[in-house]
Design a protein that fits this description.
- By secondary structure, the chain is of the alpha/beta class.
- It has a single domain, classed as P-loop containing nucleotide triphosphate hydrolases (Rossmann fold), CATH 3.40.50.300.
- The chain is about 50% helix and about 15% strand.
- It contains 9 helices and 8 strands.
- Strands 2-6-1-7-8 form a 5-stranded parallel β-sheet.
- Strand 4 and strand 5 form a beta hairpin.
- Helix 1 crosses helix 9 and helix 3 runs parallel beside helix 5.
- The longest helix has 19 residues.
- It is globular, with a radius of gyration of 17 Å.
- The model has no long low-confidence stretch (mean pLDDT about 90).
């Protein structure tokens, strides 16, 4: 293991919206005693702050300036696994789930200066290893030298079904067809984004989870890590 990754491997997970990256990433991190971070929360946090301060989300220069001005901090939750985002000392876990944030986060995430700033923060979080990080460009841009690169996928219908079930289990209204339309739209935004679009790294392990449970997918990733560990002995 390289000196800069004293705490373990870097496991990078990419894939489209609604494929289960957060659930799977958290499962893997817990099993390995690693930390997990959903990088999408960072873009949502900045979006929320911009909306709160009245910053035009289509003004790239203003958004970049805001991202650089803020005091970013990242702290583990109670079980020490999930890393949460704090801005200017305050947690932003609930605020980033607001509908207005979701509607504008893709626009914010497409700003080159914003991605550059947040990419540096993400690399800082994972530089010593012992982390599972998920997003849209983790295997291709943030950690192209990750120890493990995984691209998760699933059919649009299955992703819509999972999201609908998740919302209904949380007691929230959910229309399957509208959710499906939203996923299709988000896929197009991610794939066509000019800056760091979603794409599969050439050396990534592709896992189609359409017919698998979240635990089965998690185990596939854990098996990859175990195989590497055996090879090093």
């Amino acid at each position: 293991m390289s000196a800069r990754r004293k705490k373990g491997f870097v496991i990078a997970i990419d894939g489209p919206a609604g494929v289960g990256k957060s659930t799977i990433g958290t499962n893997v991190a817990k099993e390995l005693g690693y930390r997990f971070i959903n990088t999408g929360e960072m873009y949502r946090a900045l979006t929320w702050k911009a909306l709160e301060e009245g910053v035009d989300v289509t003004d790239g220069a203003a958004l970049t300036k805001l991202a650089e001005r803020l005091d970013w901090d990242f702290r583990a939750n109670e079980d020490g696994v999930i890393i949460r985002t704090y801005i200017d000392g305050a947690p932003v876990t609930t605020q980033i789930r607001e509908e207005r944030v979701g509607m504008n986060s893709s626009t914010v995430a497409g700003v080159p200066g914003v991605r550059k700033k947040l990419r540096a923060l993400q690399r800082g979080l994972g530089e010593q290893g012992g982390i599972v990080m998920e997003g849209r460009d983790i295997t291709t841009v943030v950690f192209p030298d990750a120890d493990f690169k995984v691209y998760l996928d699933a059919s649009i219908d299955e992703r819509a079904r999972r999201r609908t079930k998740q919302l209904r289990n949380a007691g929230k209204p959910a229309d399957l067809e509208k959710i499906r339309e939203s996923i299709v739209k988000r896929d197009m935004q991610d794939l066509q984004r000019r800056i760091n679009p979603l794409r599969q790294a050439e050396d990534a392990v592709v896992i189609d989870s359409t017919d698998l449970t979240m635990l089965e997918v998690s185990q596939k990733i854990l098996d990859l890590v175990a195989e590497r560990e055996r090879g090093r002995k």
